[in-house]
């Protein structure tokens, strides 16, 4: 009985002891609450935070782990922020949230602390994503973006270099399918994410953007889906990608399904985020280890490659009582040393440009060499405080045009422009 | 008199707990939703405040083509799935009403789909209709991989797939209700009919069917209300896609409220669903009420 009690007592005490002793011994001790998601590699994060606490003994980090899903994490954060929770100091933001959080006054502007010269050391898209109405609200922890994976062996067999344009991709895929399909009927030319969900917006941004088109006008006040560039890109996807290379099955794919097709060797080309590299080269999941190439997504003749930006940004809560300590924490975690640590330990792609010439990082992650140009073409999704609404309307629009071959894209686009503009006007009418 | 009023006081006292529960958990949230639906609230735009806008959300809802389509999809789903469920349920009930060896096992087995949590069943059906490793393609085309159909990628097939999953899952529930109706029919009626030389069809048409009508209507009522609130099947199997072809009204309401943060407008969708269901239930209950009433003199 006593033995049991002791065990239970010890279990409960262990996590408490370090905190209580340190706070007792230091007079100006701060406990920072960092709300984060459940990490894929928790040990690496534990060690990173321990490093910070060693470097800054007067600050203890208390982590609150939220669900892994971006939507559920968003719900939790906004719940805390709406109730002006002073206990939360630092949090992660998905790259599509800063506008919303800034507009609501939930996140602290960092212009005084995060100088323009310091911002220039980061990949530009990651800074752009954290900027709303000329103020910066976040520091990028790393970068994620869309990229083109391809089968090196198949391209080589048919004498192709990785395609520069979407037209070339279609020709290459057609040639390879013609040669391979008789013996490999399940092979398809392209696999991407075309289900009606957020990933569809990411995929379409790359097609429309590389045709020199935009979803919203540069100043973000109007929807521009009826522009000929946007329409032509969408028509291309419907005709060549959905109805042929990816087959309509693409309309049911999110990342895992489309990646499964690629790693099983059933696709020539594949669009995904950086994480797919490791999966495609892991013999436990993949039949194409060593045959995977990665490069910039193609573009149309009149445009340049565009990769949709993903990833996570550090922000400081507007209700925090310790903004200065929170800044110390963020500065430490996004420092060159720590980004290098994350790149070496977890293969997270750094947001700092200089690290892409670090030989140690490149030896551990040779793919970064190829990915660096991709990251430079990254582009954020529309920056608006009502992004979730805009995204749902865009998802519906793209999914309808792709799934119903008889729908006139222009007519559908003008309805969609109208719907999005209705909400953008609402944003315009709000005080800045 | 005093005794009477005392009795009524005791009566009230005893119903207060029930009233409090209903008031707190049903009435209050419903009223609160209604109040929400009279305001313009965007979670992403706190600076616009929460102005009272009367019935504007409802006029917006009437003109919203997406909501109209979602209502149409929902009605189509309700009509098709409840019809199939009641027909299939009737056949199930007739079979398990007969006496045969192992009937207990068959009865239990038939209820299994109904006992599986919908989210699990939905995930299972999503796998069944998968274009590459789905059972549907394997059964239809075997190893002819190039013939495989991506069911959930086609607007029509995706809709029918959800109907199929719902029918599979709930036909047995309808069957159970109808079985209860069958069991109260006295055997003498059938014996008499047999003596008079009635065929099996005539016995079914003139004895069974009229007598299980109330049970059929109750099955219809339950299934209609339940089908109208369909959400989990769509959430797991298609997320409303492709191109909104399977977006039912409850899923649209969910997206508006929880992912888009349009609290006022989303609440008006919930209220519209509530009113539609109320109307449907009243219609059913009145129909059932009259049938039951008509039966009484006989």
Keyphrases for this structure?
heterodimer; A: 432 residues; alpha/beta; D-Maltodextrin-Binding Protein, domain 2; 2 domains; 5-stranded mixed beta sheet; 4-stranded mixed beta sheet; 19 helices; 14 strands; 14% strand; globular; B: 298 residues; mainly alpha; MetI-like fold; 0% strand
Concise structural overview:
The complex is a heterodimer of chains A (432) and B (298). Chain A contains 19 helices and 14 strands. Chain A is of the alpha/beta class and 432 residues long.
Give the CATH H-level superfamily of the largest domain in chain A: Periplasmic binding protein-like II
* % residues in beta strands of chain A: 5-15%
User: Ends of chain A: how far apart?
Assistant: 64 Å
Structural class of chain B: mainly alpha
Q: How many separate structural domains of chain A? A: 2
Please tell me the total number of domains of chain B.
1
Strand order of the largest sheet of chain A: 2-1-3-13-6
CATH-defined fold name of the largest domain in chain A: D-Maltodextrin-Binding Protein, domain 2
Q: Give a short account of the largest sheet of chain A.
A: 5 strands, mixed
* CATH class wording of chain B: Mainly Alpha
Low-confidence stretches of chain B: none
- The Rg value of chain B, from CA coordinates, equals 24 Å
Series of H and E elements of chain B: HHHHHHHHHHHHH
Q: Briefly, what CATH class of the largest domain in chain A?
A: Alpha Beta
CATH topology of chain B: MetI-like fold
Beta-strand residue fraction of chain B: under 5%
Overall mean confidence score, pLDDT of chain A: 90
What oligomerization state is this entry in?
Answer: heterodimer
CATH architecture of the largest domain in chain A: 3-Layer(aba) Sandwich
Broad shape of chain B: flat
3D architecture notes:
The complex is a heterodimer of chains A (432) and B (298). Chain A folds into two domains: 25-143 and 311-373, D-Maltodextrin-Binding Protein, domain 2 (3-Layer(aba) Sandwich), CATH 3.40.190; 145-309 and 386-428, Periplasmic binding protein-like II (D-Maltodextrin-Binding Protein, domain 2), CATH 3.40.190. In chain A, 48% of the residues lie in helices and 14% in strands. Chain A has helices spanning 2-13, 16-25, 42-55, 70-82, 98-103, 116-119, 124-129, 152-157, 166-180, 198-209, 228-245, 255-263, 275-280, 323-333, 336-346, 359-364, 367-376, 387-403, 409-428, and strands at 30-37, 59-66, 90-94, 131-132, 135-136, 139-140, 144-145, 147-151, 188-191, 267-272, 292-295, 307-310, 312-316, 378-379. In chain A, the strands form four sheets. Chain A has a five-stranded mixed sheet. In chain A, strands 9-10-8-11 form a four-stranded mixed sheet. In chain A, strands 7-12-14 form a three-stranded mixed sheet. In chain A, helix 11 (228-245) crosses helix 18 (387-403) and helix 18 (387-403) packs antiparallel against helix 19. The longest helix of chain A has 20 residues, at 409-428. Chain B has a single domain, classed as Orthogonal Bundle (MetI-like fold), CATH 1.10.3720. Chain B contains 13 helices and no strands. In chain B, helix 6 packs across helix 8 (155-183). The longest helix of chain B has 35 residues, at 2-36. The mean pLDDT of chain B is 90. The interface between A and B is large, with 42 and 33 residues.
């Amino acid at each position: 009985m006593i033995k049991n009690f002791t065990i239970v007592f010890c279990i409960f005490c262990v996590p408490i002891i370090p905190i209580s002793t340190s706070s007792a011994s230091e007079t100006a001790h701060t406990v920072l609450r960092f709300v984060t998601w459940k990490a894929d590699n928790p040990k690496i994060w534990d060690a990173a935070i321990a490093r910070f606490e060693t470097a800054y003994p007067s600050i203890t980090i208390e982590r609150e782990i939220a669900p892994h899903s971006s939507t559920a994490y968003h719900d939790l954060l906004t719940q805390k922020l709406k109730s002006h929770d002073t206990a939360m100091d630092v949090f992660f933001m998905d790259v599509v949230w800063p506008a919303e959080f800034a507009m609501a006054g939930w996140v602290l502007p960092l212009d005084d602390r995060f100088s323009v010269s310091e911002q220039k050391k980061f990949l530009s898209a990651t800074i752009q994503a954290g900027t709303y109405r000329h103020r910066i609200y976040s520091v990028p922890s790393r970068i994620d973006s869309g990229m083109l994976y391809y089968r090196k062996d198949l391209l080589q067999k048919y004498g192709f270099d990785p395609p520069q344009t979407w037209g070339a991709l279609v020709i290459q895929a057609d040639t390879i399918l013609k040669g391979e399909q008789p013996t490999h009927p399940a092979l398809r030319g392209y696999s991407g994410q075309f289900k009606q969900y957020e990933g569809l917006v990411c995929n379409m941004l790359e097609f429309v953007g590389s045709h020199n088109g935009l979803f919203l006008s540069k100043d973000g006040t109007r929807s521009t889906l009826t522009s000929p560039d946007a329409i032509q890109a969408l028509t291309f996807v419907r005709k060549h990608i959905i109805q042929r290379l990816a087959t309509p099955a693409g309309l049911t794919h999110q990342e895992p399904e489309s990646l499964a097709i690629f790693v099983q060797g059933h696709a020539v080309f594949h669009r995904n985020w950086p994480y797919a590299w490791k999966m495609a080269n892991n013999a436990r999941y993949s039949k194409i280890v060593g045959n995977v190439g990665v490069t910039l997504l193609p573009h149309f003749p009149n445009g340049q490659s565009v990769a949709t930006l993903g990833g996570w940004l550090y922000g400081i809560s507007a209700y925090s009582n310790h903004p200065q300590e929170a800044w110390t924490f963020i500065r430490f975690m996004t420092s060159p040393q720590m980004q290098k640590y994350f790149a070496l330990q977890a293969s997270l792609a750094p947001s700092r440009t200089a690290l892409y010439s670090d030989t140690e990082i490149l030896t551990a992650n040779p793919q970064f060499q190829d990915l660096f140009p991709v990251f430079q073409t990254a582009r954020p999704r529309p920056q608006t405080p009502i992004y979730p609404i805009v995204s749902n309307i865009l998802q519906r629009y793209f999914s309808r045009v792709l799934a119903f071959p008889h729908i006139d894209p222009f007519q559908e686009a003008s309805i969609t422009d109208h719907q999005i503009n209705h909400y953008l006007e609402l944003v315009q009418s709000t005080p800045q | 008199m005093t005794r009477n009023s005392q009795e009524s006081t005791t009566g009230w006292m005893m119903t207060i707990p029930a009233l409090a529960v209903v008031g707190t958990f049903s009435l209050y949230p419903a009223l609160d939703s209604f109040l929400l639906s009279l305001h313009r609230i965007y979670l992403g735009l706190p600076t616009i405040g929460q102005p009272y806008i009367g019935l504007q959300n409802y006029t917006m809802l009437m003109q919203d083509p997406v909501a109209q389509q979602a209502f149409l999809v929902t009605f189509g789903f309700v009509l098709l799935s409840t019809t199939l469920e009641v027909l299939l349920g009737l056949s199930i009930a007739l079979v398990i009403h007969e006496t045969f060896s192992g009937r207990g096992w068959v009865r239990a087995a038939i209820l299994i789909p109904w006992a599986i949590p919908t989210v699990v069943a939905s995930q299972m059906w999503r796998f069944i209709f998968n274009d590459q490793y789905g059972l549907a393609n394997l059964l239809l085309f075997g190893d002819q991989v190039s013939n495989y159909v991506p069911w959930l990628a086609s607007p029509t097939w995706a809709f029918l797939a959800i109907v199929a999953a719902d029918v599979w899952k709930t036909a047995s529930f309808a069957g159970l209700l109808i079985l209860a109706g069958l069991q109260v029919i006295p055997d003498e009626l059938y014996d008499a009919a047999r003596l008079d030389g009635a065929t099996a069809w005539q016995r079914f048409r003139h004895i069974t069917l009229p007598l299980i009508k109330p049970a059929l209507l109750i099955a219809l009522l339950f299934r209609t209300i339940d089908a109208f609130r369909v959400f989990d099947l769509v959430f797991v199997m298609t997320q409303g896609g492709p191109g909104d072809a399977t977006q039912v009204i409850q899923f649209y309401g969910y997206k508006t409220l929880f992912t888009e943060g349009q609290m006022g407008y989303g609440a008006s969708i919930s209220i519209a669903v509530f009113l539609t269901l109320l109307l449907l239930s009243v219609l059913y209950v009145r129909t059932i009420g009259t049938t039951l009433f008509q039966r009484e003199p006989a």
